[in-house]
Design goal:
single chain, mainly alpha, DNA polymerase, domain 1, rod-shaped
Length: 186
């Protein structure tokens, strides 16, 4: 005899659907699972899985006594009447969840874009500051080079003038000596 899985303590209409989606349709299927296997299914923790399996096994043992046997039609009828309502409810919940997820994704996307724009602005600002600093340093180096060249030219001109004056003096002294010597020898 097949027992309704809903007869297990802690298994309601929505859990019946979740279990059915995972291939567990009877109390026997449920009792055959391990707590770790059941814990991988949505809404089941390992503790809940252990308890539900324990209850399913107890129900199976109790159902084997002749006094507890019920015709399958009596057990199946309540489920048949609940299934259309539950399916509609589950479908509506799934649609609502999808819409909610889409809305959450849009909100998250907007928030991510704002954060990204802020960080982009910060990065851009830093990059601009760095570029400006580099440009200023280049301009300063050019200006320093120009000033340095001008100073070098001035110093060079002064040095050349001094050397030139000294050379002119020496030359003129030599010429004077030579001319004086020529005049004396005549």
């Amino acid at each position: 005899m097949i027992l309704s899985i809903q007869a297990v303590h802690g298994i309601g209409p929505s859990t019946v659907i979740i279990l059915a989606e995972n291939g567990i349709k009877t109390v026997e299927d449920l009792a055959a699972k391990t707590p770790l296997q059941l814990a991988t299914i949505k809404t089941f923790s390992e503790i809940r899985a252990t308890q539900v399996i324990k209850d399913a096994k107890a129900l199976l043992q109790n159902s084997l006594s002749p006094s507890s046997l019920l015709p399958s039609s009596e057990v199946a009828e309540p489920i048949k009447s609940l299934v259309p309502e539950i399916i509609d409810e589950v479908l509506v919940n799934k649609v609502d969840m999808k819409a909610s997820k889409k809305a959450d994704m849009k909100v998250n996307k907007k928030a991510d874009m704002k954060a990204s724009n802020k960080s982009d602005k910060k990065v851009s600002k830093k990059a601009d500051m760095k570029a400006n600093k580099k440009a200023d340093m280049k301009a300063n180096k050019k200006a320093d080079k120009k000033v340095s060249k001008k100073a070098d030219k001035k110093v060079s001109k002064k040095a050349d003038k001094k050397v030139s004056k000294k050379a002119d003096k020496k030359t003129s002294k030599r010429l004077n000596k030579i001319s004086n010597n020529k005049v004396k020898s005549k």
